[in-house]
Design brief:
alpha/beta, Rossmann fold, seven-stranded parallel β-sheet, 13 helices, globular, binds zinc ion, nucleotide-binding
Length: 499
């Protein structure tokens, strides 16, 4: 797309009545916008619905360019550069990418030039040097504010209660709050009162999480708790794309389409991949917030930097140090298992691992065994199957992953070998867990705390063992164990555990 600038007003080339000099939007020094919205203009409510709180490409909209331009000229929307050139260095305004490796060029039919584009966010449609990002600046869609949204008969534990109050307070005061809740504390319930308070005040709420699985799990749960309101559920390929609901549940990826949309953003599993390592997703979360807004972070395992900020008083946080069932967290034990990778080459497993497995097979207690890499897992599986033929293995790309997890739930599998794919999100009621090769770099402090958090989840079977088999202790292992011990100690001091 090319634009001309006439009397400091941008006009798309298609709408020009006479030949003018035109440029890709990124070539303009400044883009002027209408001084104010024209109150006499009758705006298109469907466009408002599609565009409010978003930053979309012309291709994302179902409305003609003539009508889009009319709204622009009447002050109901703005054009922003998709790619901004700062001293000739490109920045993608949608995803914040500045890394030259993630820019490419292509012969562009829209501007007729060799057009620079961002590869980082291309899965959301191409942003190139000639692409405008379009955002709504007209009146907000009014959300109906109705009270008594919440339909939930459950009760909160003492730890949850404290956290819930802090969440409500942060939402009311437009502040940031980190909720550091141990695995199995029940962190979702802690949000209910806060979401209710926000929606009652006519605020727009977003619950974002790095993983699609979590969106799919949370959507029906929250729809049940908030039956009177519309809930939009967004992930790659979802149908709710143009839904402008008071409560949006979304993957962090989908936030790339939002711009100053939410009064309250709740970010679940801040420590989880890919959010934790992908700066463009962190940028997307910032962009999706209104200037005046609240931000709630949820995690069982904040990274080292955040932990330090909490301790130094630089970050508002509240802990839920105990599980809902008031039993302490199982504490990992360390067992040295020698150079297991070398043993594998000779088709041998460490003896203490074999003993550990046999003991559980004899007692018919189910277990998970975490392995750092897929290729190692493939070598281990046939060896372990000699102990029991029904042992299975899963990893991220395994097409039978869901079926195997279900078979584990049905107790048809005695032991499941897994990569870190099952480190979070899954609950099996009565299992022991071990890590083989806990010294591997993939097992960060956060991953190990999550893995340990798979044990003793249910009130009926709150115990269970977690063992890290290693060939040399790492800092991550030591920190993970310390974090768990500290949470148990804090929970005891606060009277949140009984055993
Ligand atoms: Zn172009
Ligand atoms: Zn981008």
């Amino acid at each position: 797309m090319r634009f001309a600038q006439i009397h400091s007003k941008l006009i798309p080339d298609k709408l020009l009545h006479s030949p003018e000099k035109t440029y890709p939007i990124s070539s303009f020094e400044q883009i002027s916008t209408a001084q104010q919205t024209n109150p006499n203009y009758i705006y298109n409510q469907e466009l408002q619905q599609q565009l409010a709180g978003k930053q979309l490409l012309p291709d994302d909209l179902t409305i003609s360019i003539e009508e889009i331009q009319e709204h622009f000229e009447n002050g109901y929307l703005i054009y922003r550069k998709g790619i901004h050139l700062e001293k000739n260095k490109p920045i993608c305004i949608r995803c914040g990418n500045k890394d030259l490796h993630f820019f490419g060029r292509f012969p562009c039919a829209r501007c007729g030039e060799d057009c620079l584009y961002c590869r980082k966010c291309i899965m959301m449609g191409r942003v190139s040097a000639c692409t405008p990002l379009i955002s709504w600046t007209g009146p907000d869609q009014q959300l109906e504010s109705t009270s008594l949204q919440l339909s939930w008969a459950g009760s909160l534990s003492d730890g949850q209660q404290t956290a819930s109050k802090r969440v409500v307070q942060a939402i009311n005061e437009n502040k940031e709050q980190l909720v550091w809740a141990v695995c199995g504390a029940g962190k979702t319930e802690v949000l209910f009162e806060g979401i209710d308070a926000a929606i009652t005040a006519g605020k727009r709420v977003c619950l974002a999480t790095p993983r699609t699985d979590v969106v799919l799990e949370l959507t029906p749960r929250l729809k049940k708790v908030f039956p009177n309101i519309q809930v939009a559920s967004l992930y790659g390929g979802s149908e709710d794309r143009h839904l402008n609901a008071p409560l949006t549940i979304t993957t962090t990826h989908q936030l790339l389409r939002f711009y100053q949309a939410f009064d309250t953003v709740i970010l679940d599993e801040v420590d989880a991949f890919p959010y934790s390592v992908d700066e463009s997703l962190q940028y997307a979360v910032r962009q999706s917030r209104k200037t005046l807004s609240s931000m709630i972070y949820l995690t069982a395992t904040p990274n080292e930097k955040w932990q330090a900020e909490c301790i130094k008083g630089k970050r508002e946080y509240v802990t839920i140090p105990a599980r809902y069932h008031r039993h302490p967290l199982p504490v990992p034990s360390f067992q040295w298992c020698g150079n297991w990778e070398k043993g594998l080459q000779k088709k041998r497993l460490p003896r203490n691992i074999i003993q550990w497995i046999n003991k559980r097979l004899d007692a018919e207690k189910q277990c998970l065994l975490f392995i750092p890499k897929i290729d190692k897992m493939e070598k281990i599986l046939p060896l372990i199957r000699l102990l029991h033929p029904k042992i299975e293995a899963v990893h991220a790309e395994d097409p039978k992953r869901k079926g195997k997890v279900q078979a584990m739930r049905n107790k048809e599998i005695p032991l499941l070998l897994t990569t870190t794919i099952l480190e979070r999100g899954v609950t099996f009621p009565n299992i022991d867990v071990a890590v083989l090769g806990a010294e591997d770099r993939i097992f960060t402090e956060s991953a190990l705390v999550q893995i340990a958090g798979r044990v003793g989840r249910s009130a009926a079977a709150p115990g269970g063992e977690i063992t890290f088999f290693h060939y040399g202790k790492t800092d991550a292992m030591i920190r993970a164990r310390k974090q768990i011990l500290q949470m148990n100690e804090e929970a005891r001091k606060k009277g949140l555990i009984d055993y």
